[in-house]
Amino acid sequence: MRTRRTARVIIAAFAGVLLAGSMAACGNSDTGGDSGGDDKLVLGFSQVGAESGWRTANTTSIKEAAAAAGIELKFDDAQQKQENQIKAIRNFIQQKVDVIAFSPVVESGWDTVLKEAKDAGIPVILTDRAVDSADKTLYKTFLGSDFVKEGRLAGEWLVEQTKGASGPVNIVELQGTTGSAPANDRKEGFAKAIAANPNLKIVASQSGDFKRADGKQVMEQFLKANPDIDVLFAHNDDMGLGALEAITAAGKVPGKDITIITIDAVKDGMQALADGKFNFIAECSPLLGPQLMELAKKVEAGEEVPARIETEETTFTQEQAKAALPSRKY
Ligand code: AHR
After folding, report:
1. 300 lines ligand 1 (CB under 6 A)
2. Could you tell me the distance, in angstroms and rounded to a whole number, from the CA of residue 182 to the centre of ligand 1?
3. Which of the residues 35, 181, 289, 326 has the least number of beta carbons within 10 Å of its own beta carbon?
4. Per-residue pLDDT tens digits for 178-233
5. CATH number of the domain that residue 129 is part of
6. Based on the structure, what is the number of domains in the chain?
7. 115 shares its domain with 199
8. Is residue 26 predicted with pLDDT exceeding 90?
9. Which atom of ligand 1 is nearest to the CA of 103?
């Protein structure tokens, strides 16, 4: 079956012949046309930024998979700013890319630009993070993790570990980027998992923006304000790794005096877990590149794709991290 892009190229070429004829008559010229001069699929991808080890691994996965699939990738780094992502998507529309994919920095505020892409006939794929648009026709599919489940798995592990604990268990939470799907969902999943245990109390919860430096700084504040912290739940490894420094500087032993639970399972996080400094990690896989390229080809060809495709993930204890580390790819 010929692709929709090829059909677009043929239509554009036909229109071009007509236009050339009329321009020759008026002595003007314009090349215009589809952004993919050859027959390569052109994918515009707007990345959140480079805030974490997870994000770096995700960018590498996307770039490598595009090259392997023979897809021309137009990559944009939004530096964690929604306005930059909106600008990038508008640029992709202007360049007439075949498919747009992006990992939305926050959940809300996408309807206008998504409608612009739809009106231009360019299919959009959400990767990693979802949007809260009521109109599900604004994008073709979502590829990524179940963040609520990740938070729930983290909470369930804690419930299991603290079974039979007599006194209160004081928890501090380092949230991801405010308004982002993983921060909202992981918070929700964790809170639900511990809800039936009144001795498990979140005594402080604040954003560390998924960054190591911010994780350290917020943990310092937590430690000053709360002398009896038992558990840290960090929404990603990087914030947990930053918090490690603050905990050690405060004269406490991470993984012993304070139990540390994180999400992602990137190499540095797995090393901390294997070293006994973290206690548990719920995995979030950044290796979305190959599936994204397959989806891009399908939506561009006008094929039906599932509305939601979830990544398969697991969890790691300290022992499991020791076993998995040597073959960990990211
Ligand atoms: O959206 C996925 C999250 O974003 C990862 O857990 C975090 O590390 C990243 O920055």
Report:
1. no
2. 7
3. 326
4. 999 999 999 999 999 999 999 999 999 999 999 999 999 999 999 999 999 999 99
5. 3.40.50.2300
6. 2
7. no
8. no
9. 1
Cα separation, 47 vs 88, in Å, equals 10
* C-alpha 40 to ligand 1 mean position (Å): 30
In short, whether 281's Cβ falls inside 6 Å of ligand 1 is no
Per residue in 99-128, pLDDT (tens digit) is 999 999 999 999 999 999 999 999 999 999
More confident residue, 38 or 169: 169
Neighbours of 36 (CB within 10 A): 19
- Say if ligand 1 is within 6 A of residue 175 CB: no
User: How far away, in angstroms, is 165 Cα from ligand 1 center?
Assistant: 32
Transcribe 54-116 into DSSP letters.
HHHHHHHHHHHHHHHHTPEEEEEE-TT-HHHHHHHHHHHHHTT-SEEEE--SSSSS-HHHHHH
User: Do 308 and 227 reside in the same domain of the chain?
Assistant: no
94 lies in the same domain as 166: no
pLDDT digits (tens, 9 = 90+) for 270-280: 999 999 999 99
